[in-house]
Specification:
The chain is mostly helical and 473 residues long. The protein has helices at residues 94-97, 109-117, 129-132, 135-147, 158-170, 176-195, 203-217, 220-225, 230-243, 248-264, 280-303, 328-347, 349-352, 356-375, 399-417, 431-465. Helix 6 (176-195) packs antiparallel against helix 7 (203-217), helix 10 (248-264) packs across helix 11 and helix 14 packs antiparallel against helix 15.
């Protein structure tokens, strides 16, 4: 890809994993004795105190845990035990997903409610009219959709979609879920088509893209209530690719529905996946679909301070390879593994009962995991932690994923370090560890501001690049 150096075989830590065997995450970073200090900030006095952090720093008084290493007891656990976590099947977390932030009932509720009601359920009985009679537009949207490195192309293929289109056209009355899938793909493709057009996108085009995205979302209720099948699972995932920018509550609702469907289909166990007559193509797409869900569910949950439902330790097949030089899909999967592992090491009730020394060791390990992920990114992105970094944003094909990875890295820095940077962490970590956490957070904030300024300047240039200016004598 233009502007991005390919990953070499020894850089790509996904391709060293066996494709059919159970696997585990291993760090490939150099041994360090402590969290390295970032460049000293210009001013750390104005750093906000993390008392409002989403993550707890103290264990609850009423929480009781079983000690699996010793005799069964109900004594509170005061040491960190690296036992595997126990998955509880079929937990109903819809209420947690549907209330991602406490501010959802604040000012502006009426406006949000009107917007939410405008997306109320409507059954699909035919293809969306905006592309139905325009074959050229449909092909352009499909092509743009599958050229985008992250999204629909991670869990669907164009031949597979074409087969669904043919089946749906031949039996339109039986394919309401299929139509929702196709409408979602077309809406995602239209957004991608605008992105790669290499011109300024006006407000009318943005509004049209949002309108197209709302069409399949109106059918989400009937899709979520339909029998659990691979097609249903893929349709929900396709909806998630367009829902995040429309309505966060709907986006969380869809992720919860996808998790429920994936668990019902037992997609984390390759030997139990579907039935004996399932084709190899469907099994491959099912694996890819599960890992795509994991790559979005874990970050979404942790972003809002709640625990993910899916656990990579229970998935017995490795993340699929994208088959491209820059394996963006694997990059996203491993980011989700890194931050979920970091959260488990630092913020579970068991982790909060660690000693100061144990906690600082886990902080160091979490930071090493994140740095290991960064060092395996394509070469230009390996410098995204530096204040003089300059992202390559002129390639429209990878601009979105470049910005997404930049956001993910600095979001992870704050998730790992920020809760331990304020006065609330007194006695929980040493003063030296606290100071380094502050430095890392301040440096991260300065890098984010610098890149935000770069993006703003580029957007201004794009906006006025094609506008005629008067020529003065």
């Amino acid at each position: 890809m233009q502007g991005l150096a390919p990953l070499s075989e020894n850089q790509n830590f996904v391709r060293t994993l066996p494709g059919s065997a159970a696997w585990s995450l291993q760090t490939e970073v150099e041994s360090v004795q402590s969290i390295p200090s970032a460049p000293p900030p210009t001013d750390i006095g104005g750093v906000p105190d993390p008392n409002g952090s989403l993550w707890p720093l103290f264990p609850t008084d009423t929480d009781w845990q079983f000690d699996f290493d010793d005799q069964l007891t109900t004594e509170p656990n005061t040491t960190f035990i690296s036992a595997a976590s126990i998955a509880v099947n079929e937990l109903d977390l819809s209420q947690s997903y549907n209330h991602p932030t406490l501010g959802s009932e604040s000012a502006g509720l009426s406006r949000n409610l009107i917007e939410y009601l405008s997306l109320s359920e409507k059954c699909h009985d035919g293809f969306a009219s905006w592309y139905r009679n325009n074959e050229t537009l449909m092909e352009s949207c499909k092509a743009a959709c599958f050229r985008k490195p992250v999204g629909i192309s991670n869990f669907l293929t164009m031949p597979y979609l074409d087969s669904i289109v043919r089946e749906t056209v031949s039996r339109p009355r039986e394919g309401s879920t299929s139509i929702s899938l196709i409408d979602s793909v077309m809406a995602f493709g239209y957004q991608a088509y605008l992105t790669v057009s290499q011109r300024f996108i006006n407000s009318e085009e943005r509004n049209r893209a949002q309108y197209y995205a709302k069409i399949p979302l109106r059918s989400r209720g009937s899709v979520l209530r339909s029998p659990n099948t691979l097609l249903k699972f893929q349709t929900i995932l396709a909806m998630t690719t367009i829902s995040e920018q429309i309505d966060e509550i709907i986006h969380c609702e869809l992720i919860a529905g996808a998790v429920s469907c994936a668990r019902a289909l037992k997609l984390d166990y390759r030997d139990l996946m579907h039935g004996a007559n399932t084709s190899n193509q469907d099994k491959d797409l099912a694996k890819r679909s599960l890992w795509y869900l994991y790559s979005i569910e874990a970050p979404q949950c942790l972003r809002h301070g709640i625990s993910p439902v899916l656990n990579h330790d229970w998935i017995d097949h490795s993340p699929p390879q994208a088959g491209t030089e820059a394996d963006w899909f694997s990059v996203q999967c491993f980011y989700a593994i890194v931050i979920s592992s970091a959260a488990e090491m630092l913020y579970t009730q068991r982790a909060l009962r660690q000693s100061l020394i144990e906690r600082e060791q886990k902080l160091k390990t979490a930071f090493e995991l994140l740095e290991g992920w960064r060092k395996h990114l394509p070469t230009p992105l390996q410098e995204l932690h530096k204040q003089n970094t300059h992202l390559i944003l002129d390639d429209c094909r990878v601009r979105d994923i470049t910005l997404s990875i930049f956001r993910q890295y600095h979001e992870a820095i704050f998730m790992i370090c920020f809760p331990w940077a304020g006065s609330q962490s007194d006695g929980r970590v040493s003063e030296d560890c606290r100071r380094k956490s502050v430095e890392l957070c301040v440096n991260s904030a300065q890098v984010v501001l610098a890149i935000a300024n770069q993006i703003l300047n580029l957007d201004i240039l794009d906006r006025y690049a094609d506008m005629p200016f008067p020529i003065r004598d």
